[in-house]
Structure formats: C-alpha cells, structure tokens
Design a protein that fits this description.
Blueprint (H helix, E strand, L loop, with lengths): L1 E7 L3 H18 L4 E4 L3 E2 L14 H7 L2 H11 L7 E2 L5 H9 L3 E4 L4 H7 L5 H19 L5 E2 L8 H9 L4 E2 L10 E4 L2 E2 L12 H7 L6 H11 L5 E6 L2 H5 L1 H13 L3 E3 L1 H8 L8 E7 L8 E5 L1
Parallel strand pairs: 1-2, 1-10, 1-11, 2-5, 6-7, 8-12
Antiparallel strand pairs: 3-4, 8-9, 12-13
Helix pairs in contact: 1-11, 6-7
C-alpha cells in the first residue's frame, strides 16, 4: 500500500509551529512527504464572511471547534490583527523542508483570497496571484517551484490554463479522485497532470462526527476498503501538526507496522508517467462533499 502525505500550510502559525513539528516527526519515522506553502499574507480572519456565502460554513466551524484549533491570533488575522506573510516570514523553515528530503511546492499566494474569490477573478487577477506565489517562492527558496496545490481544492479553466502556461510539473488541485489524470473542465483540455487527494481529511471527518474518537482508524479502513495504486491523504499543519499531533503520530506508527510505503506526490508522478498510456483524461467538476463547506474541485470518473 502506497500513501502520499500531502501537507498543506494555511496559516502563519501553521508555518511557524506546525511545519517544524511535522519535520521532527517525519525525521523520527523516516517518512518523506510533500509540503505546499502559501507565501503571501495570512488573512484567516476574513474567513468569517463565508457565513454569508458558503452553506454549512458556520455549522462546520462549531462542530470542528475551529477557535480551539486555530486560536485567537489566527481567527483575527486580517481583521482586528494585521496580516502577516506565511511562507515569506520563514524562509529558513521553507528551505529546511527540502534539506530534509521532502518535496516543496506552492499552495497559492493569498490562501483566503483564492478560496473566497477565485470563481469571480479575471484572467489577469488569477495570473497575478500565481506570479506573486512563484516570485515569493523563488525569493525564499532560490529556484522555481515545480508543484502547485490549489488553496481549498478550488480551480477553474482559467487557473488550470495558467498552471499549464507556467509549466508546473504537476498539480494537486482536486480533493476527490482515484488516480492521477489529465484534466478537462468546461470542455477545455489541459496538459498538467493532476494528482487528486483520495482520502477524506481530518477536519471533514470531525465535521461529520465530532464525538468520534477513532477517526484515524476510519482512514485506515478507507484505505483498505478501496485498494488503489496510490492513496493521497491531505493533512494540515494546523491540525495534524499541532492540535492532533499525538493522534497523527500514533496513526503513522500503526501504518508503518502494516508496511505502508510513504511516497511523495513527485514520486507518484514519476511512477505513473512510466506508463503514460494508462493515464486517463477526466473532467473536473465543482461539487460539495460530506464534511466540507462549499464546493471543491473533484475528479469525475
């Protein structure tokens, strides 16, 4: 069983605390993962306005105990507290990810702005967001990024077109799927390989059943119930890297006992490209999935 751990950083605190915690954990367990960082401002506090736009947002915030998980500083960033850069504030942490043998890609520039406004942005505005992310990555890391993971699993034909134009090696923009694929959206075809997340996230499972104490066991069961060449599980530095670090550690140790092989998304890409004739072309659709507020991009098989 092959499992790719896709590590999304969403906030300043997730970068400052969560990433080093996970680097320490992965070093001890000899696991390699794929990290995706937004290099622009943390405006997490502005997410409160999703109450008026995204069905189920407030319910999810209550069920997942969002304030307990993220803390007051994060909840107020960009409103009562000033925005601060996420990746760009900690170039040494970003560089440490690669130094320890992990993969490093970009998770957009301004996570909240992309999540809340992508569907209404002009092509120029989408291009500028990506250019800012690429420029900031290069300034911090010293080279061009090879991988892109869309904030909030949200993409459009416009964003997919620019992912092609900027020649990313692959993208991981889709929350639900079964196998790497070449995307089409609204009748347009694109050439950058998509590596979808195949498993539910921790916050989704908590949102569905806040009292469930065996969430990670559910993930193991999901992996075993649907055998795939590569499972991809997205974790968040603010959850698995901080509040749920112990539970996540226990789960990884249990997977190692089951001889699960941990791979990076770049390794998955290299493996599937060995047999390009087997890579399907699939549509990307926006739909709501259990445990998540608002629609996300999903692979349509």
């Amino acid at each position: 069983m092959n499992l790719g751990l896709k590590v999304d950083v969403d906030t300043y605190e997730g970068m400052r605390v969560g990433v080093p915690n996970l680097l320490n954990l992965f070093r001890k367990l000899q696991i390699k993962a794929s990290f995706y960082i937004p290099f622009g401002p943390d405006q997490s506090g502005r997410a409160i306005f999703r109450i008026f736009k995204k069905r189920g947002f407030m319910k999810k915030m209550v069920q997942t105990s969002a304030l307990k998980i993220y803390g007051w500083k994060t909840v107020l960033r960009g409103t009562l507290l000033p925005s601060v850069a996420i990746g760009a504030s900690f170039p040494e942490i970003a560089r440490a990810v690669e130094k320890e043998g992990h993969e490093l890609g970009i998770h957009g520039y301004n996570h909240v702005y992309w999540q809340d406004h992508l569907l209404e942005l002009s092509p120029l505005e989408v291009k500028e967001e990506l250019e800012r992310a690429i420029f900031s990555f290069e300034k911090c890391v010293g080279k061009k990024p090879q991988a892109f993971a869309a904030p909030a699993w949200l993409c459009t034909p416009t964003s997919l077109g620019f992912i092609d134009a900027f020649k990313f090696s692959y993208a991981s923009d889709t929350r639900s799927g079964t196998f790497p694929f070449y995307p089409t959206m609204n009748g347009q075809g694109f050439k950058t390989l998509q590596i979808p997340s195949t498993l539910p996230t921790l916050d989704e499972l908590i949102g569905l059943d806040p009292e469930n104490k065996n969430i990670h066991s559910q993930l193991t069961q999901a992996m075993e119930a649907t055998p795939l060449p590569y499972q991809v599980h997205t974790i968040h530095t603010e959850l698995e890297g901080m509040v749920y670090l112990k539970e996540f550690t226990d789960w990884l140790q249990s997977l190692k006992k089951k001889n699960v092989q941990f791979v990076t998304c770049a390794q998955i890409k290299e493996e599937v490209l060995k047999e390009p004739q087997k890579i399907p072309r699939c549509a990307v659709i926006l739909k709501e999935i259990p445990g998540r507020a608002g629609a996300v991009a999903c692979q349509q098989n």
